[in-house]
Amino acid sequence: MSMYLFASATISQAVNFEWAGIFSTPRTEYLWTAQKVGGLYADPRMRLVLRETADADADTLSSIRDEGIAALNGTCIETRSGEVLAPGRCYDLVFSVHMWQTLFPVQANGVALAIFTQHVPTEFESSAHYLKDADGYDVEPVSEIFASPSTIKAVPWGTGIGAACLVNLLTFAGVLFLVPGMRSLVSKNERLCHATMSAFAAGCLLAAAFYLLLFESTHLIATFSNTESAITFRWGTMASDK
């Protein structure tokens, strides 16, 4: 034990808890998988705590929630691909940046296993489930706990809504200032103004039909780009690849 701890780097720092799950583990060997999504790992490393339990149910997971989070913020062993994860420890998983996935064998007690992680493990899923048994079958949690609202970064809704209201107010003020001048212009050139405004309105309707409604009906068919804005432009203008 002492030699193993000496050879492995130990790290202790405050981290955010995002997820915990409890699993029925009748076998003793499992596999934890982390994959790149879109060419990158969601995070180059992640903390993980394993805890043996006698039962696999929601009450058991809730009863050890605080202990698991505390362990997640304690001293963790730096662990790399292929190294075994055993219950009763916190691991700082380091993912292989040159590999499309990183695998960690997991030891279990043959009954139940609770897992606490720094990130939601599905963030690291591309083509394979994060936990599998020795035969390659997915192992799903019996119960899960996600981060409480207090641990989730607050979204500044007030600032965004306030800024939107301010922009709308200034825009409306501009319209009010334009009314006297537009009234005079329309009274002097009524037919020309009506024709011009009708042309603009027709253009808006046609643009909405071609750039939004018609394109959405194709369920975002990608022909030459991965970005929605570029594909929308190509579709709306009927541009050719040649």
Structural summary, described in words:
The N and C termini lie far apart (67 Å). The protein folds into two domains: 2-148, no CATH class; 190-242. Mean pLDDT is 84; it is low at 1-12. The chain has helices spanning 2-7, 58-63, 65-72, 157-188, 190-216, 228-237; strands at residues 10-12, 19-24, 29-35, 45-53, 75-79, 90-94, 101-107, 112-117, 131-133, 143-146. The longest helix has 32 residues, at 157-188. With 242 residues, the chain is α+β, with helices and mostly antiparallel strands. Helix 5 crosses helix 6 (228-237). The strands form two sheets. Strands 1-5-6-4-8-2-10 form a seven-stranded mixed beta sheet. The chain crosses the membrane at residues 157-180, 192-214. Keywords: Membrane, Transmembrane, Transmembrane helix.
Write the layout of secondary structure elements.
Blueprint: H1 2-7, E1 10-12, E2 19-24, E3 29-35, E4 45-53, H2 58-63, H3 65-72, E5 75-79, E6 90-94, E7 101-107, E8 112-117, E9 131-133, E10 143-146, H4 157-188, H5 190-216, H6 228-237
Parallel strand pairs: 5-6
Antiparallel strand pairs: 1-5, 2-8, 2-10, 3-7, 3-9, 4-6, 4-8
Helix pairs in contact: 4-5, 5-6
Keywords: Membrane, Transmembrane, Transmembrane helix
Transmembrane segments: 157-180, 192-214
